[in-house]
Amino acid sequence: MKFFVDTADIAEIRDLAATGLLDGVTTNPSLVAKNGGDFFEVVKEICALVSGPVSAEVTAIEVDAMVAEGRKLAEIAPNITVKVPLTWDGLKACRSLAQGGIKVNVTLCFSSAQALLAAKAGATFVSPFVGRLDDIGQNGMALIGEICTIYRNYPETITTQVLVASIRHPLHVIEAAKLGAHVATIPPKILRLLVAHPLTDKGLAAFLADWEKTGQAILAR
Ligand code: E4P
Known about the structure:
Radius of gyration: 20 Å
Oligomer: single chain
Structural class: alpha/beta
Strand content: 15-25%
Number of helices: 11
Distance between the termini: 40 Å
CATH class: Alpha Beta
Strand order of the largest sheet: 1-2-3-4-5-6-7-8
Bound molecules: erythose-4-phosphate
């Protein structure tokens, strides 16, 4: 499973990229607004920090304007993926951008029917939002299972990757991996939580205390 980080915070991205475990980045207009700064400069800097796909979202809602914005965003760097919303205009823009060789992430997906349309429109990624579905009492992870099953039924024609978005906790990541989703885009705080386990901390403390008693040092040899 690929791990993308879901943020426009350069410092966070730099820090997480240094782990070598980061496969890409997703941003959206809300994350860009939260982070501040010039959108183009921020995205350019992110693209230089990671070699994998960096999603930057269009803000137009009409197809021709979306395509124009998408083309402009794609000029920022070769690893840009243009994000468009899951509307009829967004699907048409996806098709047009994809035909022009630009990778597209179709975002704001909340149903399997929408995910099928995104695949047919030539999306590289579809982003189903699990957390926002859970928030309204629906089962976000059930949607991931459904989309993965549907896409797997058409291996010859569907190459769209399921990018699990709106992740709220580590279990979302684990469940998505069990279902075979291709990518999870994870907020920095949740990404850091993935490593945490109290028994790891306790075990390490015990090993170090016992090692201390031997009076030895590996690098002293
Ligand atoms: C990423 O592509 C999505 O825009 C993001 O995961 C949405 O997350 P949220 O529901 O926490 O805003």
